[in-house]
Amino acid sequence: MTEQREDRRISRRTIAKGAAWAIPAVPLVVATPAYATSGGGPNGVFLGACKQPGNSCNTGQKPYGFIKGYTFTVRINNPTALDLYVYPTINNVPNPDSPAGPPVETMNPYFVVTSSVPFSYNTARRFTGGAIGVPLNTAELVPAGGSITIIINAGQQGNSANTDAVGRLDMAWGHTEYPVPGSDPDHPYWPGPPSSPPLAEGWFSIPFSFPSTPPCGTDCAPGGDETNTGA
Questions:
Q1: Among residues of the chain, what percentage have pLDDT more than 90?
Q2: Which DSSP state fits 34?
Q3: pTM of the model
């Protein structure tokens, strides 16, 4: 007879729920989880990528914080009937469902890529009407039926070599403005990136594929249907 054993790791959210059982039971009206009526979560479309060969988009009249590396533009769509938020900044907010104790996983966006050059998620800003805008908030609203376009500086060790790439960008989302532990209990965020799909509820992926990374335009953005390269 073969004994089957299942390895279960206790998440910090599970510990919090366990503590709640110590409170005397009171009859409650249980609401339907928000995401159950939303028809799912966001999706994303890759618009373009280019290389930042120097520091010109980090100083002077272009203080965007884009260092030597690469720049991506993506559109994030909300096809659901409810407003939602995406969490697109490097804020190191702990993943509330990661195992208790170190290492504590975060809800930072993460690149998974197959290419000669790795990418690391760095500074990100709004990109509206072909213009680079303000830095992103910890939580960015994507209204029901709407979309936002963002521009991301993705660099690794100062590399800006011309490269091809196939991969995806993983990002967390929810129906609450700030992804503090337990703030969106309908979404179990574990496992999060860099796990392979399918990702846990609360994450979505933006796939991308391109044969090269030409130099960015004079406006520091890739060319494409949402940009004006100034070329």
A1: 30
A2: G
A3: 0.81
> CA torsion angle for 158, 117, 169, 9 (degrees, to 10)?
-100
For residues 44 and 168, give the distance between their C-alpha atoms in angstroms, rounded to a whole number.
Answer: 10
pLDDT tens per residue across span 148-169: 999 999 876 566 788 888 999 9
Cβ-based neighbours of 74, under 8 Å, separated by 6 or more: 44, 45, 46, 47, 149, 150, 152, 169, 206, 208
Instruction: Indicate whether 205 pLDDT > 80.
Output: yes
**Alpha helix segments (H runs only) across 38-193:** none
Q: What are phi and psi of 92, to 5 degrees?
A: 55, 30
The answer to whether residues 188 and 13 touch, using CB atoms and an 8 Å cutoff, is yes
Residue 112: phi, psi to the nearest 5? -120, 115
Question: 115 with 163: CB under 8 angstroms?
Answer: yes
